[in-house]
Design a protein that fits this description.
It is built from six helices and no strands. With 112 residues, the chain is mostly helical. The chain has a single domain (27-109), classed as Cytochrome c-like domain (Cytochrome Bc1 Complex, Chain D, domain 2). Helix 2 packs across helix 6 (93-109) and helix 5 (70-79) packs across helix 6 (93-109). Functions as an electron carrier between membrane-bound cytochrome b6-f and photosystem I in oxygenic photosynthesis. Heme c binds at residues 40, 43-44, 84. Belongs to the cytochrome c family. PetJ subfamily.
Length: 112
């Protein structure tokens, strides 16, 4: 009986690890700041948005539009949306994750 339970638990553990998505590592905000300056600041200097003034990168706006997470920002930067161009072909996934970390860290600081 113990052997059956052990084998069953091992099977569940293997199944869980085999089909689970790996967690995204937190990006490097310092590196993200450099990438942001080179690619994003022309429209988003100081956390603003020159194209759509309501959709800034301020914490309250990110929360309002369900963008206050690395995952949401990574998706937006990678795929683009509306006037926002897609950067998935220009930047590597690690660079985009770094930008997301930078945006969140700046939003938490009030872009100061």
């Amino acid at each position: 009986m113990k052997r059956i339970v052990s084998v069953l638990l091992l099977g569940v553990a293997l199944f869980t690890f085999a089909f689970s998505r790996p967690a995204l590592a937190d990006g490097d905000a310092v590196a993200g700041g450099k990438i942001f300056s080179a690619n994003c600041a022309s429209c988003h200097a100081g956390g603003k948005n020159l194209v759509n003034a309501q959709k800034t990168l301020q914490k309250d706006a990110l929360e309002k539009y369900n963008m206050y997470s690395e995952e949401a920002i990574i998706t937006q930067v990678t795929k683009g949306k509306n006037a926002m161009p897609a950067f998935g072909g220009r930047l590597k996934p690690e660079q985009i994750a770094n930008v997301a970390s930078y945006v969140l860290s700046q939003a938490d600081k009030g872009w100061k």
